[in-house]
C-alpha cells in the first residue's frame, strides 16, 4: 500500500512538472528548453552571474517574438526581448506591471518591506511621500556633505598609494559611499574611509554577503514568495536587521528629544512618522503616519542601494579608464576645464562635465549594477498584436545587461566608447536601449543622488590621481556569480599615482 502511494505521488509530481515545463509550448511562445529542477537557471550563482545567464537566454530568443519563455525552477517567466514591448510594460501599460517580483516579508523581516519591494497602493503612497527627498533642490543641499567626503577620499587614497602598492578600489569607493550615505541619510559620521572596520561598513558588507546556500535561498524565496512568507523565511542577516532597527530608532529618539533638524532623509522620515511631510512646493501636508519599522526599512534601502550601486559604478568606470589612458586624459581635461570655468565643484559644474558624464553612462551601459529589471503581471495582460496572454502572477524579466551588450544597439559592444552618449548618437538609438535605472513610474528614485555622488567621487579622484591596471586583477575580469548586483570577483585592483 505504501509503495503504491509513493509511486502515485511520484507520478503526480512528474506529471505536474511536465505540465509546467510545457507551459510556453502549448501557448505557442518561443522558449528555451528547461531542465529539472532549476529550469533555465543551471550554473547561475555558481559559475555565472544571473545577468550572464539572462544574456545567454536573450541571445537564443531575440527576434523570434516580442518575448520568449524561460523557467526559473518550475515557474514560467517572460523574458522580454523587444524594446517596444519593454516600453509598453514599463510605461504605457504600467498599471498591469506595477509590482516587482522581489521577495519581502514585512512581518518576519521588516527591513525588506521598503520602497524597492513594496507593491500596489502601499508602494504608490510611499513613493509620493519620499519623492521630495530627491529633488534638485535637496541634491544641492546635500552636495557639500558629498564634497567633504570626497576630500577625505582623496586623503585616504593619497596615503594608500604612498608605497606604490596596488589598491583594491572597490572597497575604498564603498567606504566613501558609506560615509556619504551615512551622513546624508542618517546624519552620522561613519568614518569608514579611515576605519575599514567601522560598524556601518561592516554591516554594508554583510548585506551583500551570501553564505553557504544563501544564493539558492535568495532564488527560491523570489520564485515561491507566498510559501516563503508562510514559512517565515528571512533573507537579511540577523545582525544587519538588529543594527539598522536600533540605529534608526536611536537616531529618531535623539532628534525628537533634542529638537535636532538637519533637513536630511531621517528628518523626512520623522515627519512621515508624525503624519506630516512636504510636497514639491515645500508646503506642509498631513498624511497617514508610518511606523518606526517602516522608517527603518526606507532608511535601510536608501543606505544599501545608495552605497553599493554607486561604488560599483565608480569602480567599473575607473577600471575602464585605467585601461584606456587616452580616454582617462580626456575625462581629466574635461574636469579641469570645467573647474576652471566655474571656480569650484558646484552643482552646476558637475552637470557641465559632459565627457565625464559620457564615461559614467558608458560604464552603466557596459556594467549596469542592477543588471535585470523584474516585474510581475498583476492582472491578465493581452500582449499587443498577438493572441498571447501573460497570466496574472507571471514574472517578467527585462535583461538590462543583455540589451546593453546587443550589437544591434551598440556596435562592438565590448569596446568602452564614451562617445556613444554624444547627443547625436543617443538621438539615433531607441530610448529603451539604455535602462541602468529602469524606466517609467518605478524608475530608481535615488538616480539623481547616485549620479551626483559618482560624479563628485570620480571628478575628485581623476583631478588628483592617474590610474593604471594592477597585476592582481584578472583580465578580463569575471563577475562574482553569487552577487546580487554586478561585481568583479576578487576585487578591483588598480595602481594610482599622484598628479
Work out the number of β strands: 11
State the major sheet. Answer: 4 strands, mixed
Strand order of the largest sheet: 1-2-9-6
How large is the share of residues in beta strands? Answer: 5-15%
What would the keywords be for this entry?
alpha+beta, 499 residues, 9% strand, globular, 19 helices, 51% helix, three-stranded antiparallel sheet, four-stranded mixed sheet
Describe the structure.
By secondary structure, this protein is an alpha+beta fold. It has helices at 2-21, 23-26, 50-61, 83-92, 120-130, 136-160, 169-186, 199-208, 214-223, 225-230, 238-258, 265-273, 292-323, 325-342, 347-352, 354-366, 400-404, 423-428, 447-464; strands spanning 67-72, 75-80, 167-168, 276-278, 284-286, 373-376, 381-382, 389-390, 395-398, 465-469, 493-498. It is globular, with a radius of gyration of 23 Å. The model has no long low-confidence stretch (mean pLDDT 90).
Characterize this entry briefly.
The strands form four sheets. A four-stranded mixed β-sheet has the order 1-2-9-6. A three-stranded antiparallel β-sheet has the order 3-11-10. It has 19 helices and eleven strands. A hairpin with a 5-residue loop joins strand 4 and strand 5.
Amino acid at each position: 500500500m505504501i509503495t503504491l502511494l509513493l509511486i502515485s505521488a511520484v507520478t503526480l509530481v512528474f506529471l505536474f512538472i511536465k505540465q509546467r515545463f510545457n507551459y510556453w509550448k502549448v501557448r505557442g511562445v518561443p522558449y528555451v528548453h528547461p531542465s529539472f529542477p532549476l529550469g533555465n537557471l543551471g550554473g547561475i550563482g555558481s559559475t555565472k552571474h544571473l545577468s550572464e545567464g539572462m544574456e545567454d537566454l536573450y541571445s537564443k530568443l531575440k527576434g523570434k517574438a516580442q518575448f520568449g519563455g524561460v523557467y526559473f525552477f518550475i515557474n514560467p517567466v517572460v523574458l522580454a526581448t523587444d524594446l517596444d514591448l519593454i516600453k509598453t510594460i514599463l510605461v504605457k501599460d504600467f498599471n498591469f506591471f506595477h509590482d516587482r517580483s522581489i521577495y519581502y516579508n514585512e512581518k518576519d523581516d521588516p527591513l525588506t518591506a521598503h520602497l524597492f519591494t513594496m507593491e500596489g497602493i502601499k508602494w504608490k503612497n510611499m513613493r509620493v511621500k519620499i519623492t521630495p527627498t530627491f529633488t534638485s533642490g535637496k541634491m544641492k543641499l546635500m552636495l557639500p556633505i558629498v564634497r567633504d567626503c570626497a576630500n577625505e577620499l582623496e586623503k585616504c587614497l593619497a596615503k594608500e598609494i604612498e608605497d606604490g602598492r596596488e589598491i583594491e578600489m572597490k572597497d575604498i569607493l564603498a567606504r566613501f559611499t558609506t560615509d556619504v550615505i551615512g551622513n546624508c541619510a542618517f546624519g552620522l559620521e561613519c568614518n569608514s574611509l579611515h576605519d575599514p572596520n567601522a560598524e556601518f561598513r561592516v554591516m554594508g558588507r554583510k548585506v551583500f554577503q551570501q553564505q553557504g546556500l544563501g544564493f539558492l535561498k535568495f532564488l527560491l524565496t523570489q520564485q515561491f514568495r507566498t510559501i516563503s512568507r508562510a514559512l517565515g523565511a528571512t533573507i537579511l542577516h540577523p545582525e544587519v536587521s538588529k543594527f539598522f532597527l536600533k540605529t534608526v530608532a536611536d537616531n529618531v529618539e535623539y532628534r525628537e528629544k533634542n529638537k535636532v533638524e538637519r533637513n536630511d532623509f531621517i528628518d523626512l522620515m520623522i515627519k512621515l512618522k508624525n503624519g506630516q511631510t512636504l510636497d514639491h512646493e515645500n508646503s506642509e501636508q498631513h498624511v497617514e503616519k508610518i511606523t518606526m519599522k517602516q522608517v527603518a526599512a526606507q532608511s535601510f534601502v536608501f543606505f544599501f542601494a545608495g552605497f553599493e550601486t554607486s561604488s560599483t559604478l565608480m569602480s567599473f568606470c575607473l577600471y575602464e579608464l585605467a585601461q584606456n589612458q587616452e580616454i582617462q586624459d580626456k575625462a581629466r581635461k574635461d574636469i579641469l576645464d570645467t573647474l576652471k570655468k566655474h571656480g569650484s565643484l558646484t552643482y552646476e559644474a558637475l552637470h557641465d562635465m559632459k565627457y565625464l558624464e559620457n564615461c559614467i553612462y558608458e560604464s552603466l551601459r557596459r556594467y549596469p549594477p542592477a543588471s535585470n529589471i523584474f516585474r510581475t503581471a498583476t492582472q491578465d495582460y493581452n500582449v499587443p498584436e498577438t493572441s498571447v496572454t501573460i497570466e496574472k502572477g507571471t514574472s517578467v524579466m527585462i535583461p538590462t545587461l543583455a540589451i546593453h551588450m546587443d550589437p544591434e544597439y551598440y556596435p562592438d559592444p565590448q569596446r568602452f566608447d564614451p562617445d556613444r552618449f554624444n547627443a547625436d548618437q543617443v538621438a539615433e538609438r531607441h530610448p529603451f536601449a539604455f535602462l541602468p535605472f529602469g524606466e517609467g513610474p518605478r524608475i530608481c528614485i535615488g538616480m539623481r543622488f547616485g549620479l551626483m555622488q559618482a560624479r563628485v567621487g570620480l571628478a575628485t579622484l581623476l583631478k588628483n590621481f592617474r590610474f593604471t591596471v594592477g597585476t592582481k586583477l584578472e583580465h578580463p575580469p569575471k563577475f562574482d556569480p553569487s552577487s546580487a548586483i554586478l561585481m568583479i570577483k576578487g576585487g578591483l585592483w588598480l595602481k594610482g599615482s599622484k598628479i
